[in-house]
Amino acid sequence: QVQLVESGGGLVQAGGSLRLSCAASGSIFSINAMGWYRQAPGKQRELVARITSGGSTIYADSVKGRFTISRDNAKNTVYLQMNGLKPEDTAVYYCNAVARMVYWGQGTQVTVSS
Questions:
Q1: Chain CA centroid to CA 21, Å
Q2: Are strands 46-52 and 33-39 parallel, antiparallel or unpaired?
Q3: For site-directed labelling of 31, which of 6, 25, 44, 114 has its Cα 20 to 30 A away?
């Protein structure tokens, strides 16, 4: 079992920045990759960024150049640094971990005002 706890969401003006954190606990040795997804009202959940255990990263085209995913292995934590936020980034952001199963955090709201 893997437990994920997210933090760092909030309300920010367009052009601002936020950093999301996702702390993993439990069977963290089994995790192959961690990532961030988001879901806006009325839309499907979509991948924002992912980082593998080897450090490889992928990003959604809509956030490339603005968001950066990183990890601190000592703290078992993955971060999502979000710069240049836009109103269309408004969503609930979910942390995700892929091991033998897929695990999800509880979600954190990010609201970007215009």
A1: 7
A2: antiparallel
A3: 44
